[in-house]
Amino acid sequence: TGEGEPVVCRFAEAVNVARFDPSGGRLVAGLRDSFAQIIDARTGFPLGPRLLHEQRVVDAAFSPDGRQVATASWDGQVKLWEASTGRLLAQPPRSSSWVITLAFSPDGDRLLYGGAQASAHLWRPQEAPTAVQTWRHDQAVIATAFSPDGERLA
Q: Nearest CA to 11 among 55, 45, 52?
């Protein structure tokens, strides 16, 4: 309803992205200083280790079941983490340029991401952890989405 008290999380650097998990009990924040952090949405305190990248984290999302977190960074990397422990689970081959956006499929089995290299990539980490399907574009890909049934990509 938007009527509750805001959660205050204090970081030394700017927050580039913040996303709630499906339950609303946690959020993941991507920061300018090269990491993401899962946070208790009620207290504002960090949960688990920092999810490290080499450059700023510009997008992050929880899987639909809340068990995984994906992060995207200007370092050209997408990383898939176990949300409860912060353990790195998988990552596709590094992109040649900034990764700007990512989205989980409704079933959580696929991840769509894109960025400055003017392409979108579909990754199935459980099926083929190092293989991606790629579509070229004329410009940078700055937003990605799945249809509610997971059949169409945007």
A: 45
| pLDDT tens string 44-75 | 899 999 999 999 999 999 999 999 999 999 99
Q: How far apart are CA 88 and CA 91, in angstroms?
A: 8
- Residue 52 contacts residue 39 (beta carbons within 8 Å): no
Describe the strand order of the beta sheet including 78-82 as a list of residue ranges.
57-62, 68-73, 78-82, 88-90
List all residues 6 or more positions away from 74 whose beta carbon is below 8 Å from its beta carbon.
55, 56, 58, 98, 99
CB 18 within 8 A of CB 59: no
Q: Percent of the chain at pLDDT above 70?
A: 97
- Which residue bears the tokens 């009990």? 25
CB 129 within 8 A of CB 88: no
Dihedral pair phi/psi, residue 115, rounded to 5°: -175, -150
Q: Give CA–CA dist 43/33, Å, rounded.
A: 22
Of 20, 59, 9, 6, the closest CA to residue 36 belongs to 59
Question: How would you class 20 by CB atoms within 10 Å of its CB: exposed for 0-12, middle for 13-18, buried for 19 or more?
Answer: middle
